[in-house]
Amino acid sequence: MKRFEQLKNLVASLEPDFVKFYEKENAAAGTRVRKGMQELKNLAQEIRVEIQDKKNT
User: Fold this and answer.
1) How far apart are the C-alpha atoms of 22 and 14, rounded to whole Å?
2) Domain ranges of the chain
């Protein structure tokens, strides 16, 4: 469940930059969103591997 909390916190932390990018057209916020989405992808992959390992034991 710790990983799930990390996932939720990461998504929540990206919200202000999403707003800045889409509503205020702030290009720097778009860069931060892309970086955060990459972190989200990596974390999701780690969770998938962890779940698969636990399932197979």
Assistant:
1) 12
2) 2-56
